[in-house]
């Protein structure tokens, strides 16, 4: 059994109480490593280490120098990609082909993007309607930033926070998911090698209600960036509010993928499939509701079923695998529970609908790719985030009805429309209550443009130039030039 250590200041350490959590391989269903079970005292050490680092050499670096370190880190991520990919395949069940085919490069790109931005955060001189007064804004680091990360994409979802937080000059404590900490623990070791001073990046592992809540309530923490479920997000926001700490929340989704009758149906099929079945549906932006025009609904669903019927489920490390396992035992049970709910609600599984037992992965946590028809938007399976390879199909008759169904959800993370009509491509996106709308595309995301949710899908945005401001304090400086100075 492999043993992983936390990074606190200059130390690689177990938890103070020397307690451990087993982490399981979703393909085999067996424990394969242990991670430290940090508690309040470990959280406090990490926050203090981060605070000290901010007052030390890190705080004296110029923004350009911080950018150089982030560039070096991006390079090290590429050089160590084999190790990082192996860890996410083993710990999370992410497919090697997906990580090697671009996802790991995408993670490295975050550090480069924010490295470049570090010394381009410009203030503003504002006209003042009083003679002799000069006003300008500057931006300065907040201090200690806590980044709380879920299990479905640990390296990526940590990096979307770490990169802008460090570019802005803060120091960071990361709390990975208790189900998937190992890749982030390995990433932390690269910070040393890149030349970051000790304490700039700390990682403490353990349970959310133990080490996580200790971090979010620590008085030295000025900002919490969270990605995860809505219950965790609400707890984090409450705790942060007590201490008047700033928060960014990236939460769940139930995103509509809307196919109009005039769409390029081949492209739409590929986009709908990618939207829900890549990462086995374990993606906040999964296109989990297919809204399809009634005139093409039967044909479209038949083609979708045919395209998925022979999908290969199995070892996420193998290049021939199309669909990997569900990442955690708890989530596996939750997806199967939703399939029971679907049956009770009267939905029809035109594909899948049950646990899968692929050769070699019989003890793993596999769910058949599932397409459910006879679904209305008021059913639980159309309203709750399933976070598995489960697509519900809801036909519509008019554009207004499609928009109404799309918006009839508590979530507002993403949406897509598939159409060949310019009027729809231009006219529909503004009407959709979602932080991201794709037209004839799905899952196109980048460090370069904002991502985040409306309604219950979150608060604030990650990515893009504006996201660095989520990690900076704005300062107004007013100079009275009518008073004599030397
Ligand atoms: P989760 O909320 O259970 O856990 C997320 C993280 O929060 C974990 O590290 C956990 O330990 C920690 N945590 C939980 N309670 C806490 C508390 N009270 N105080 C501090 N930390 C706490 O979520 P999960 O099950 O790991 O992840 C799946 C969820 O994440 C899904 O709902 C999904 O939609 C969401 N997600 C959102 C995005 C996005 O960008 N919007 C991206 C990926 C995943």
TrEMBL record:
<dbReference type="InterPro" id="IPR015590">
    <property type="entry name" value="Aldehyde_DH_dom"/>
</dbReference>
<dbReference type="InterPro" id="IPR029510">
    <property type="entry name" value="Ald_DH_CS_GLU"/>
</dbReference>
<dbReference type="Pfam" id="PF00171">
    <property type="entry name" value="Aldedh"/>
</dbReference>
<protein>
    <submittedName>
        <fullName>Aldehyde dehydrogenase</fullName>
    </submittedName>
</protein>
<dbReference type="InterPro" id="IPR016161">
    <property type="entry name" value="Ald_DH/histidinol_DH"/>
</dbReference>
<feature type="active site">
    <location>
        <position position="250"/>
    </location>
</feature>
<dbReference type="InterPro" id="IPR016160">
    <property type="entry name" value="Ald_DH_CS_CYS"/>
</dbReference>
<feature type="domain" description="Aldehyde dehydrogenase">
    <location>
        <begin position="20"/>
        <end position="477"/>
    </location>
</feature>
<dbReference type="InterPro" id="IPR016162">
    <property type="entry name" value="Ald_DH_N"/>
</dbReference>
<dbReference type="InterPro" id="IPR016163">
    <property type="entry name" value="Ald_DH_C"/>
</dbReference>
<keyword id="KW-0560">Oxidoreductase</keyword>
<comment type="similarity">
    <text>Belongs to the aldehyde dehydrogenase family.</text>
</comment>
